[in-house]
Every structure is written in C-alpha cells, then in structure tokens.
Amino acid sequence: MTMDREMDAPRVGMVAGEASGDLLASLLLTGLRQRWPGVHAHGIGGPKMAAQGFDAWWPSDKLSVFGYVDALLHLRELLQLRTALGDRLIAERPEVFIGIDAPDFNFGLETRLRTAGLKTVHFVCPSIWAWRGERVKKLAAAADHVLCLFPFEPALLAQHGVSASFVGHPLADAIPLDVPQAAARQRLNLPASAEVVALLPGSRRSEIRHIAPGMLQAAALLAKQRPALRFVLPVAPGLRPLIEPLLALHAPDVAVQVLDGQSHDALAACDVTLIASGTATLEAALFKRPMVITYRLHWLNWLYMRRRAYQPWFGLPNVLSREFVVPELMQDAATPTALAQAALAWLDDAPRRERLHQRFTELHHTLRQNTAHKACDALAQVLGR
After folding, report:
1. Mean pLDDT taken over the chain
2. In whole angstroms, what separates CA 174 from the centre of its chain?
3. Domains of the chain, start order
4. Is the pLDDT of residue 284 over 50?
5. Is the N or C terminus of the chain more exposed, i.e. has fewer CB atoms within 10 Å?
6. How confident is the model over 37-82, as pLDDT tens digits?
7. pLDDT tens digits, residue range 231-265?
C-alpha cells in the first residue's frame, strides 16, 4: 500500500520567496507528504522547504526584493530567472505548480505555465482588498485555483470568476494556542521575570536598510528609560552582516541579543514587539503579543502605495479585526521616540494587554483550520484525484 501511494504521488513545482513564503511552503509540504509520502517538489525555495525534502533549483533569497525601486534595480535578473525556471518546468511538466505568494514574480510564471497546459494553484490571495485591486485580473489568468488564508477572500474572488478555497492559515496550526513563554525564555537564556522587547525589522535587505535604524534608535531610548529591559532581534539567514554595523551605530550601548532566525522564540519570549508590517505581524498576533507595527520604505514606493490603499490599516491584525487593535506607525510617523512611547504604553497597561490577548485568541481559533489537510483536499480536486 505504501509503495502504491509513493508511485501515485504527484510531482509539484513550487516557488516561494522570502522567509514568510519559505515558512508557508514548508508547512504545506508537510501536508503534501502526509497525503502523498512520495511527493517530489522542486523549484525556488528556502531552508525550511529544503528541510522538508524540497529540491531547490534556485534559493528563495533571489526573490527578496520589495517595492518598485528595488524591483527595477533587479528587474533583468528576475526576468531571466523567471524565464529559465519556466523553461525547466515546462520541460519537466509537474502535475501541478503552486506559487506561494510573490505575485509580481509568480503571476507571470503561472500564466505561462497554464498556457502551456500545466495546472496552476496560487497559495495566498493577493491583498486585492487592501490595494492594487486590478491584480485580480492577472490572478484570474494565472491560477486554476487559489488557496486563501482568510475567510472573506473566496467570496470576493468568486465575484471575479476565480475558483478559491478558504484553507485557514498554516501558522495558526503551527503556533500553539497557549504561548510557551517560559520555555522560549529558557531557550534564549532570558530571565523569567525580565521585561523583554522583540525587535523584528523584517526579512528583506531593503527592510533592514529602511526600518532597522529607527527601531534600534527606539531600543536605545527604551533602554535609557528602563535599563533592565532585555532586547532580542531575530535575523533572517544572510542578513546578520547588515544588522551588526547598524547595531554599532544606533544602539552601541544596548544589550541586544541577535538571534539567527528563531523569530518564533523571540515572539513567544517577549512582552511587546516592535515589528515590521507583513506576515510577521500575524505571527505576533497568534502568539498573542502586544505590538507596535511600523514600516518605512523608499519614498517613491511609499507614495505609490499610500495613494492606492483602500483601507486605513496596513497591519494584518488590524485588517482582520477591522479596527486599530494595535498601533501603526508608518513612514514619517515611525520616529524612534514614537516607537518607544508606543512600546512603553503597552508595558504600562496590563488590562489593555489582557483585552488584546482575548481578541487574538478568537482570531487564532478562526484561522486554525488544519490548513495542510484542507489545502491537500483542494489540490486533489484540482488534480482530479
């Protein structure tokens, strides 16, 4: 029986960019291997995918750019990579291709593969409900089916003729409902009674350049006001050489514990986090952590995004709650002083933290859907299995 299942296992093409995509894809691969133990997946991926047996033809950090300025600087390289990958996938003809987020790269690739007769699935509905709603037309051309993380998305896509399933968020399955703070602090050698601030400036090089300086300056201000505070800063693979000079420049006298990865340990261990807008804010919400969401980027990118935003929220916890349950300090508002004051406001207000904990627990239950199983069910339907 096991041999039959392995022989019947599909070959899957995949592309995931950045740390968040690598994590999502690795969790999906776990489900695929449970359903089809002999599944073979290849394409572009990161270390977490590789740990699940993924065959990375190119590493995911090739796609770690953000915004139009960064993309233009790397456009030729990205287009050449997409062409080479498409050629290889069309030659090898996997049973299905799954694009994990990265819409600006994956939509064009998926459209080409679909035209060539391959089944295509896009995992993570692009945030057409937040900005760039015109992307739904590209999505309709690119994907046979969309796996949606949030419950309101399939109905929205159906209005545009796009087949989709709500599969929940795999992070809601992976992150425990009860936060193991004591165990995380023990792993990080942090005192059980200390007040801990996690600094998460992002996993892209451009985010480190634009966000980390202000975040580190805020840490320096916090340390001045509360010398007993402890700081942890998880760093994505390959980015430590960018962080260390910034630490020396902006927070030379602050005891910041730099971690290689371990973002989940940092979030579990902390009392509050200063965090870049993105998937990490949802992780922080699932860890029931008070946070101050921030973002800075090249001013041209900011003008472009700000003009096209459809709603007042940027951070996922606020988007899903439909209100500002946590503060957002974006672009010019993201001063070190404002970041530090917002963090202190959380540390000084226990009832507010408890209300947020209850709100985030409800959100966790909503998103906890056994995503790997539901996603595999949807993929089996796409494949006609």
Report:
1. 89
2. 14
3. 2-168+369-383 (3.40.50.2000), 181-367 (3.40.50.2000)
4. yes
5. N
6. 999 999 999 999 999 999 999 998 777 654 444 555 667 888 999 9
7. 999 998 888 999 999 999 999 999 899 999 899 99
User: Which structure tokens are listed for 133?
Assistant: 């709603």
Token pair belonging to 353: 């933290």
